[in-house]
Design a protein that fits this description.
The chain is of the alpha/beta class. It is built from eight helices and ten strands. It has two domains: 107 residues, Tetrapyrrole methylase, N-terminal domain (Cobalt-precorrin-4 Transmethylase, domain 1, 3-Layer(aba) Sandwich), CATH 3.40.1010.10; 107 residues, Tetrapyrrole methylase, C-terminal domain (Methyltransferase, Cobalt-precorrin-4 Transmethylase, Domain 2). It binds S-adenosylmethionine. The site of S-adenosylmethionine has 21 residues, from β7 and β10.
Length: 249
């Protein structure tokens, strides 16, 4: 039977497939992701209960196993055995977005490469490129620093490094509980740098707040920041066509 791409499915080979899942809008699952989840023998999930909700939504009934930061090393070996010895196709998902980006998956990929087990990665939802393009900041070069560290010393150092970047936009995942502290630190380091807080991407209350740390701080101190956040800091040098963009939010 043809799959959702209209093609006859290729002869199935035993492998591991990393499957990105929506970061807020269920419509962002891809046809290939659905085909893969339907075809796989088992789905390895960061949180089986959460993935079960996603699978149920798409009427996919599939056995699941857990793959999270605490069992990734041992589970990777089990997954490799399943593929190599039992000829299984294992789909891997995290709670949201691209597995392996601030989520489990990378150790498994690395173990599969070492064991020469076939691995494929599907394209799909991920907060980084979305926030970068949506912010309007330079996208030619960018640095992704994962979650900003909770400890203030390390966090300030990361911010200092971001402010030193000449041509690369800096991107960080940030908690809503810490965004005011982070903007306060940023304001003390450089009150003028073009900064963007991208919130709740792909969801009902998606917002991009752009401006310098002072204006963003004013805004985020007056509300209780909620939801998921990506923080972006522009580089020192902006391409000519973007220089006008560093205005008030
Ligand atoms: N693997 C995910 C991805 O591909 O984006 C990232 C997982 S990481 C554990 C979760 C963090 O990503 C959140 O705390 C937030 O910083 C960012 N994030 C995820 N979804 C988001 C969204 N819809 N809007 C803004 N930021 C988001």
């Amino acid at each position: 039977m043809a799959d959702t791409s209209g093609n006859e499915p290729p002869v199935r080979s035993p492998r591991v497939t990393l499957v990105p899942t929506p970061i807020g809008n269920l419509g962002d699952i891809t046809l290939r992701a659905l085909d893969t989840l339907r075809a796989a023998d088992v789905v390895a999930c960061e949180d089986t209960r959460r993935t079960r909700i996603l699978l149920n939504h798409f009427e996919i009934s599939k056995p699941t196993i857990s793959l999270h930061e605490h069992n990734e090393a041992s589970r990777s070996q089990e997954i490799i055995r399943r593929v190599r010895d039992e000829g299984q196709h294992v789909a891997v998902v995290s709670d949201a977005g691209m597995p392996g980006i601030s989520d489990p998956g990378l150790r498994l990929v690395s173990a599969c490469r070492v064991a020469e087990v076939e691995i494929e990665v599907l394209p799909g939802a991920c907060a980084i490129p979305l926030a970068l393009v949506g912010s309007g900041m330079p996208s030619e070069e960018f640095f992704f620093g994962g979650f900003l560290p909770p400890k203030s010393g390390r966090r300030v150092r990361m911010l200092e490094e971001a402010l030193e970047r000449e041509t690369a936009t800096s991107i960080f995942y940030e908690s809503p509980h810490r965004i005011v502290k982070t903007l306060t630190a940023l304001k003390e380091l450089d009150a003028d740098r073009w900064t963007c807080v991208a919130r709740e991407l792909t969801k009902k209350f998606e917002t991009y707040h752009s401006g310098n740390a002072v204006s963003l701080l004013e805004h985020f101190s007056s509300i209780t920041p909620k939801g998921e956040i990506v923080l972006l800091i522009a580089p020192k040098k902006l391409p000519k066509f973007l220089t006008h963009a560093n205005s008030a939010p």
